[in-house]
Design brief:
10-stranded antiparallel beta barrel; two-stranded antiparallel ribbon; 8 helices; Programmed cell death protein 2 C-terminal domain-containing protein; PDCD2_C
Length: 368
């Protein structure tokens, strides 16, 4: 299992509707689909609470590369609702995984390719990118509960995407090599019709940076947490707990303090981190309640942690919008959005050899 990779802010897009491709990792803007989506996908991008159109919050190109599994065509999309009454509602967030079926990808040898970005990014950034910047071996985690979200026929959507794939061969990747290259307009991007009615937030691009967190840092963090707890316990103004239920609440509060202080320590170490990525790793919790990601709705396998969005992302978005638009983001008051995905990547799917898989994954929301 590798370490934690941080999504750090790169250049802003030329405009909020700037087209890229699905190998691009970015915040905001419009989603860059690997293939044209069929009309059956409409309900998948609606808010479960108010039925309004969801806004893209993050697009993360996330290939999987390990000993017995190699999936190059894989993207995670995270959506949220901008309606005032929905920003703090857990059902207003959605994570979508779109990938080429494992049967289709097979175990072919992995080839290098460029992460293609708009020319504005290529000219502004001197950072070198890799296609596998988020990839490392998995760490399995088990969860047995099913998720009770709105029912969407994802199997049917996957079949429809498979059919669409045969009509979109011209959209396959054309660039190779590890260095960043300027993007030329692909057939899919050029043909994209922009619906001005869709809610869109400011768009900026992301580069990867591996988190460096030493054992010494972890020890100092633990000592600070224990010191704060000890001070609280020795406080003469603190009355002795006499009821078992009060002891339980007190323990919960201490656990929450430990989680928050650890969370804050990691954020302070990299104050610009927009998201954290550690496929099959452990989430950085902002509170003691880890939530229940349930199981995959396509294959029934347990979900495991893959990534989480962090509070600096909200700061950058707030700074980019006008005063009139800030109210739309005011209700996005979460501390972190944790994305759990299928631990098996739905390897036992029924898609055709050139098929694509569409899966709604789990988003666990933690607030202050």
């Amino acid at each position: 299992m590798g370490g934690v990779f941080l999504g750090m802010p790169g250049p802003w897009a030329g405009h909020m509707h700037e087209a890229a491709d699905h190998y691009t990792t970015k915040i905001g803007g419009l989603p860059d689909w690997p293939i044209p989506l069929p009309s059956t996908s409409v309900d998948l991008f609606k808010c479960s609470a108010c039925k309004s159109d969801l806004s893209l919050l993050a697009q993360v190109y996330a290939p999987i590369s390990k000993k017995n599994l190699n999936i190059e065509e894989r993207v995670i999309y995270v959506f949220g609702c901008l309606m005032p009454e929905c920003g703090s509602t857990t059902v207003s967030w959605r994570a979508i995984r779109i990938q080429k079926s494992v049967n289709s990808e097979g175990l072919k040898s992995q080839s290098d390719k460029a992460v293609s970005l708009p020319a504005s990014f290529a000219s502004d950034s001197k950072k070198e990118w890799k296609k596998d910047m988020w990839s490392f071996d998995t760490l399995e985690e088990d969860d047995d509960e099913d998720e009770d979200d709105d029912d969407i026929d994802l199997a049917e959507l996957g079949r429809a995407l498979s059919e669409a794939a045969s009509l979109a061969s011209q959209s396959k990747k054309q660039n190779h090599g590890r260095k960043l290259t300027a993007k030329t307009s692909s057939p899919v991007s050029a043909a994209r019709v922009i619906d001005k009615r869709l809610p869109v937030i400011p768009c900026f691009y992301i580069y990867a940076e591996e988190e460096k967190f030493s054992k010494k840092d972890a020890s100092v963090c633990s000592k600070n947490i224990l010191s704060a707890i000890k001070d609280h316990e020795n406080d003469p103004d603190t009355q002795e707990e006499t009821w078992e239920v009060e002891d339980y609440e007190y323990d919960r509060a201490l656990n929450a303090d430990r989680a928050y202080l650890k969370f804050k320590k990691r954020v302070d170490a990299y104050p610009e981190q927009c998201f954290r990525y550690s496929y099959g790793g452990k989430p950085l919790l902002a509170s003691g309640d880890a939530g229940d990601p349930g199981t995959c709705r396509l294959c029934g396998a347990a979900r495991h942690y893959e990534m989480q969005l962090m509070p600096p992302l909200l700061y950058f978005l707030q700074e980019a919008v006008s005063e009139k638009e800030k109210h739309a983001l005011d209700n996005w008051n979460w501390m972190t959005l944790i994305v759990y995905t299928c631990s098996q990547n739905c390897s036992k799917d029924d898609s055709s050899d050139d098929g694509w898989i569409v899966a709604e994954e789990a988003v666990v929301v933690q607030y202050e």
